[in-house]
């Protein structure tokens, strides 16, 4: 197990670790007039994961606790990777630990909390041209994205769009070498490093990258980056 980019050579995950195929599903419903409920949608809820571990060390277990707390406790979620699936990770908070301790040996459970109950894959980057072309999102779920555009010519606007009529339009007198960054998840637009949300046109419609092929184009050659997302 690797957490926040680090593993501990004295800690091993037990073979009886169970990872559910998905986080619990939460159904969004309303009540039917004749009784029962109508399902309007569903979403993944948070995931709580108990990881069974064994600790063997040349040091007393009590002397490892300071090191373990520094490793595990953070203000933001960190990547949690299991070595049998190195190309997938969770974004997790440490939630607690219960150990049966002996002098230099302990066995127990480390609990993690994932506010987003997804597994994440590789971060991909693709260059988007001025005519529609396919971008393949290999994940199982829709992904947020970010774009980076370096203007090679002056322009009066910038458009990033899919073939479903969804688009981001920015109106501005862009200059050569201007650096434009857009972050879907944060609804953030930066020009030359400065937030510039006022550039966003009212007819813009934010969209996500759907699983499978997405047909995209931009008014200027643009690099789009996204992280594959899985159940």
Q: Assign the structural class, choosing from mainly alpha, mainly beta, alpha/beta, alpha+beta, or little secondary structure.
A: mainly beta
Q: Topology as H/E string?
A: EEEEEHEEEEEEEEEEEEE
The N- to C-terminal Cα distance equals 19 Å
Number of domains: 2
Averaged pLDDT: 96
Low-confidence stretches: none
Strand content: over 45%
CATH T-level fold name of the largest domain: Elongation Factor Tu (Ef-tu), domain 3
Query: What does the overall shape look like?
Result: globular
Helix content: under 10%
**Beta-strand segment tally:** 18
Q: What is the CATH domain class of the largest domain?
A: Mainly Beta
Biggest sheet: strands, sense, closure? Answer: 6 strands, antiparallel
Radius of gyration: 23 Å
The CATH architecture name of the largest domain reads: Beta Barrel
The total of helices stands at 1
Domain Siphovirus-type tail component C-terminal: 139-230
InterPro entries: Dit_BPSPP_N, Siphovirus-type_tail_C, Siphovirus-type_tail_N
Domain Siphovirus-type tail component RIFT-related: 9-113
Pfam families: Sipho_tail, SPP1_Dit
């Amino acid at each position: 197990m690797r957490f926040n980019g680090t593993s501990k050579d004295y800690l091993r995950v037990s073979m009886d670790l169970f990872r559910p195929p998905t986080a619990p599903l939460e159904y969004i419903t309303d009540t039917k007039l004749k009784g029962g409920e109508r399902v309007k949608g569903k979403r993944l809820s948070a995931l709580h994961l108990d990881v069974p571990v064994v600790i063997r060390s040349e040091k007393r277990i009590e002397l490892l606790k300071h090191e373990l707390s520094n490793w595990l406790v953070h203000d933001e979620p960190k990547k949690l990777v299991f070595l049998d699936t190195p190309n997938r990770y969770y974004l997790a908070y440490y939630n607690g630990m219960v150990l049966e301790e002996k002098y230099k040996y302990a066995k127990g459970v480390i609990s993690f909390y994932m506010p987003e109950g997804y597994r994440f894959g590789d971060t991909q980057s693709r260059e988007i041209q001025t005519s529609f072309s396919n971008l393949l999102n290999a994940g199982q779920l829709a992904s947020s994205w970010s774009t980076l555009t370096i203007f090679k010519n002056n322009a009066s606007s910038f458009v990033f769009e899919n073939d479903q009529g969804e688009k981001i339009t920015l109106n501005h007198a862009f200059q050569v070498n201007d650096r434009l960054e857009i972050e879907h998840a944060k609804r953030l637009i930066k020009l030359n490093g400065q937030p510039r949300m006022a550039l966003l046109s009212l007819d813009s419609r934010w969209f996500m990258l759907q699983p499978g092929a997405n047909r995209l184009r931009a008014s200027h050659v643009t690099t789009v980056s996204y992280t594959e997302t899985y159940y």
